């Protein structure tokens, strides 16, 4: 069984989380820690396969421990986060630093009702434990001259997406007519924070989309958590939709990609990045059938390979590339 180190300042929550993990039959708790120093000592001694990490620790916070782990011996980390605006800020920062995923504590810092979410927590642990933590390849991007990308670009991402989007959007340059719409599987609050975080990293303008938001050059629109996003038939704006979740997801990348194919036809460019499940596959097939361009992040590079591999297996993908080559391909289309 895979060993889990629980880093949590509340002894009560240590017990709750530990009970759930021990009952899984897949994981075992190898240790508990309440502070960064204690966590670092037990991490080096016990050599866990994965870590659950709460941000709120006495003294130095959980981010300090996360940075140490990722710089010395990258290990899968699941953040446990409160469903608050402050929790969202911390979570996005953690994901950008290398945490694989997060789990929302249902009732704040002390959530005894976590027992009611046992299956969801174990499922997250299962996903995180299989994460690929290889560092992303970076290469300097040469300018291709001042031209305009004619394509509308849609990007789908889930688990591991914050890190991938951080790399991709910070590598793209303004002034070549980029129009990008992103579906990242996250709740509301978190997508708002994600947009703000990515905007600070990118030369493009990144913002959470509103209903009837104009599609403009040098702009990235992030679908809000809890709403689908689609292209208006005019091709000039996006529409937020309250349709039921697709495959339990809202927003769904399939709805975005399908609308892109219908409106932009062979000028639609769909990209699927890291994530669990198969969202994006059906939409990418539609883009390909309309003559558009489809790209999947190389599954061997993706933090979680399921989403890109699903699209590849379905025959929906024209190009399979690591992120740095996806940047190059977008620039080549300019």
TrEMBL record:
The active site is at 158, 185, 279. Phosphorylated by CheA. Phosphorylation of the N-terminal regulatory domain activates the methylesterase activity. Its EC number is 3.1.1.61, 3.5.1.44. It catalyses: [protein]-L-glutamate 5-O-methyl ester + H2O = L-glutamyl-[protein] + methanol + H(+); L-glutaminyl-[protein] + H2O = L-glutamyl-[protein] + NH4(+). Belongs to the CheB family. GO terms for biological process: chemotaxis; methylation. The gene is cheB. Involved in chemotaxis. Part of a chemotaxis signal transduction system that modulates chemotaxis in response to various stimuli. Catalyzes the demethylation of specific methylglutamate residues introduced into the chemoreceptors (methyl-accepting chemotaxis proteins or MCP) by CheR. Also mediates the irreversible deamidation of specific glutamine residues to glutamic acid. The modification 4-aspartylphosphate is found at residue 54. This is Protein-glutamate methylesterase/protein-glutamine glutaminase. It comes from candidate division WOR-3 bacterium. Residues 3-120 form the Response regulatory domain. It is found in: Cytoplasm. Pfam families: CheB_methylest (PF01339), Response_reg (PF00072). SMART domains: REC (SM00448). Residues 146-334 form the CheB-type methylesterase domain.
